Every structure is written in structure tokens, then in C-alpha cells.
Amino acid sequence: MRAYVVNRNAHPSELALVSGAPVPTPKPDEIIVDVYSAALNFFDILQSQGKYQIKPPFPFALGAEFAGRVAIDSPIPEGCNLRPGDRVFGMGQGSLADKVVAKWKLTNVLPDNLTFDQGAGLYITWPTSYEALVGRAELKSGETVLVNAAAGGVGIAAVQIAKGSFTPIGATVIAAAGSSSKLDVCKQLGSADYTVDYSKPGWQKRVLQFTGGKGADVVFDPVGRIADSLKCIAFKGRALVIGFASGNIEKLSLNLVLLKNVSIMGLHWGLYEQKEASRIPEVWDALLGLFSSGRVKPVIYSRIYSLEKAMEGLLALERRETWGKVIVRLRDENQGLVMAKL
Prior knowledge:
Elements: E1 3-6, E2 17-18, E3 30-40, H1 42-48, E4 60-61, E5 65-70, E6 87-91, E7 99-103, E8 107-109, H2 116-120, H3 125-136, E9 144-147, H4 153-164, E10 172-177, H5 180-188, E11 194-197, H6 204-210, E12 216-221, H7 226-229, E13 233-241, H8 255-259, E14 263-266, H9 272-275, H10 279-293, E15 305-306, H11 310-318, E16 326-329
Parallel strand pairs: 9-10, 9-12, 10-11, 12-13, 13-14, 15-16
Antiparallel strand pairs: 1-2, 1-4, 3-5, 3-7, 3-16, 5-6, 6-8
Helix pairs in contact: 3-4, 3-10
């Protein structure tokens, strides 16, 4: 099968597609999935270089998120409700390949109203954003949330969840990003109420203007701008630390935390499988309901990459050129393998 096999620590620009990679052997709790679409993540870039906390032994196949069909020859573990041919999405090491093995408990049925391209990027970003806003910060209808890096995969999911999770009205969303084109994405595809360019000095004043001087009730930050955002957070506001996509781990001066009675909260969704597994199906039940209702919709980058061009997608992601989820298409929705055009 085709796959990006990593034999040594190397930048994605040094990786080549292998055509004769072995089909992975599933463990007793795993299924085999024919991959139709895969999503790219920034940590793929780090993992190929040995800079990510998860370090599979060499050789390993790159990629983590996928959507596809349970393979015809897949074993079905005891207790698994999936069957060969079922449309699914999930997470498994080596998703940038024609086939991937995945734990069946980490694999969900893909809603009928979503394509494989849309489903490929659901598994990591959407539960992260949902649990952060709803589970940790307990965002309420009518409150205001500031979403930093709002055009990225996790950010644009947060924008939609804040708008679509509450009835009759959602939260008010202020989307922050570093360019006008990305702010347009937040407005047009995420339905953000307001946008602000945080590359411009004094951007926090705009947030205060949007909120009538109060500030944002919740700050959602996957990039490393908590310190800057505390200048426009409300009294008793909640600040969510999601990640450090800027590359620098923040160090906070706690005087503003004290003076504004602010709560700083972290969210590491990957740890829930070990620490609070009972919460995982609750989050997915809520999210799948939102997807089926049409109140939220996955946002994918305008260019879909073939498997042969997947490393170009990772380089574009590394250069911060992309928005939404970056998708690699291996098979057409109702057809066979997609081969790159010469």
C-alpha cells in the first residue's frame, strides 16, 4: 500500500511516498479502515522530526486523523458495533496511507450529511473545542467569547460551537486572527459576530469596544496569547489554554489574574481516555447531534491535496498559509484511489 514511512527523524520536505508499505496488522481491539480522506495536523510536522511527545518506534507511518470505510477484510472485535463498509472517522497512527488500523472505541460512524473530506478532520479539533468551551469554561448563552487563531482548525470549530451549541441564542463570538483574509474566513464560514486583527497594536481596545467596556467572558487560546488577552477579559472571566501554536510556551504575570478575579483553565483532550473516559461519549453525542442538525459544519481549506502532494500540505501548514482543516484525499467518495495528475 502507499504510505509515508518515517525511517529516521526528518522534516516532511525530506519524506517520500512509499508504494510498497506493508498493510498494518490490527491488535485485538483494532479494526482496519480503507482511508478515503486524511487530515493534516501541525504535530505531524513535529512527529516526523522526533520533536513530538508521541514517538512511535521506527519505521512508522505518518498521519493521525482519517475518514473512510471499515475494510471488507477487517476483523470485528468483540463488542464492536461497526461492520465492513461502514462510513467512519477517527484517529490512528499512519492515516496518510491507503489503510490504517485504529482502536474501534476511537472510531465513530460518520454522519450521513458529512463527506469523507469533512469527516477526516473531526476527531481532534472538535472535541477539544467543545469540551474547552462547554465542559471547562461552562460558556453560557448570551456570553461573549474571544477566540484567538480563530481561522485555524481548532479555532474555527470553537467559533461554530460557541454560536451553535445554545438555543435560542448562541454566545457572541469575537474572532481574532493575524490577517484580513483569515478574518474573512471567520466571518463568512464561521459566522463570527465580530473580528479583530491581533497583529495590530492595541487590538484589545477593539474587544472592549465590542463588549461595551466589559471585556470577553471567555478567552479561547490555542496559540499562546493569554497574556495579551487578559487586557480585554471580563471581571471573573475564564481563560482557556488550548496550546502554543506560536512555538513559545507562555509565562504569565499573575497580577491581572488576581486583580480581575480571572480563572486560567487548561484543556488536554487526549488525556481524557486515561483520566475521564466516561466524558468522551457524552462529548461525541453532543457533537454528532450538532453535525446532524446542520447547526455546525466542518470548515476545510480551499485546496484538497492528493496523497502524492500531502507533504506540500504540511509545508503550507507550517508556513501558516492555511485555514480550517487541511485535507488529503486518497479515494473519491464513491470511487477508487485518487492518483495525482502528471
